[in-house]
């Protein structure tokens, strides 16, 4: 089998590499981070049966996943802006739902499963140059280059590999999250921990909202959401590097919300990180191109209100790896894979766009309650 290069060590790229190695196929994974611990990997993920769980079974890592997963994390709670609990769904019985796992734990599980030396850290891709025969030369920021028969763009929202296939770029959704968090929440912040519950708490109303998510180790990640111009902080004269200024600006936005919910702004331990949300245009498609393909956010970046981002990326990685194992020619494998990938991702992206529009709307409280009631 020809040499394959995966760009990016997210769940999708690592899933692809793991399954390729299980089939004896040579693969190298390149990542711009200096090491596996160079940066925080984000929050918690719920693994769905037909996507994330399917991929985990194909990697042979199912038992490792279940040892780390938190089925109780599936609890879903909706809170009104005055602090009343409007909806509270307990997690389904064990083995029947979408158990949660910290993104960092999932990544470490996948990384540990790869053959030593598979991941080349400190390799920031600058460009992929077509060589005219389906092969590509990958040029990295430190001057290193390598040629490959197939380059897999698993390099996220601002993918360099995507530029070979399409001119599409992510667009601002109109919604920004400001991320913060609580450490040792049950001991240090018992009232906020109780309001969050064991899984995810959402309070959404009139283009504003809170999302609080339980992670392992007593940590709760908090996302303070706003439908707002991307440069909201500049318009308000807020220095994003000054926590007190960010806190005061958020409190002003949520001035008429419950003091209990405003505690998610004031009583935090981790500072504030501004995160505008982007998505690729829908539909995002491309013409088949020899020697290159995409998976995950590089192919179908969408809002987190799909609940499908990492799940789809892992299913993408599994489907691509299986296609490469089943077809003698790389191009035949990629064609078969993209016939599945593109329609599936377009459908999910359409749902994600509807999801974020409903979650940050004038009547988002009513829309969200109706949605939760219908689906639980």
From TrEMBL:
InterPro entries in alphabetical order: FAD-bd, FAD/NAD-bd_sf, TetX_monooxygenase
Species: Streptomyces griseocarneus
Keyword Flavoprotein listed: yes
Protein's recorded name: Flavin-dependent monooxygenase
Swiss-Prot/TrEMBL domain comment: Consists of an N-terminal FAD-binding domain with a Rossman fold and a C-terminal substrate-binding domain.
Biological function: An FAD-requiring monooxygenase active on some tetracycline antibiotic derivatives, which leads to their inactivation. Hydroxylates carbon 11a of tetracycline and some analogs.
Enzyme's top EC category: oxidoreductase
Cofactor(s) listed in the protein's UniProt record: FAD
Molecular function as annotated in GO: monooxygenase activity
Reactions performed catalytically: a tetracycline + NADPH + O2 + H(+) = an 11a-hydroxytetracycline + NADP(+) + H2O
Keyword Aminoacyl-tRNA synthetase part of the UniProt annotation: no
Enzyme Commission number(s) of this protein: 1.14.13.-
Biological classification of the source: Bacteria, Bacillati, Actinomycetota, Actinomycetes, Kitasatosporales
Family as reported in the entry's similarity comment: Belongs to the aromatic-ring hydroxylase family. TetX subfamily.
Record text on subunit structure and interactions: Monomer.
Binding positions (FAD): 46, 103, 297
Annotated binding of NADPH, by residue: 39
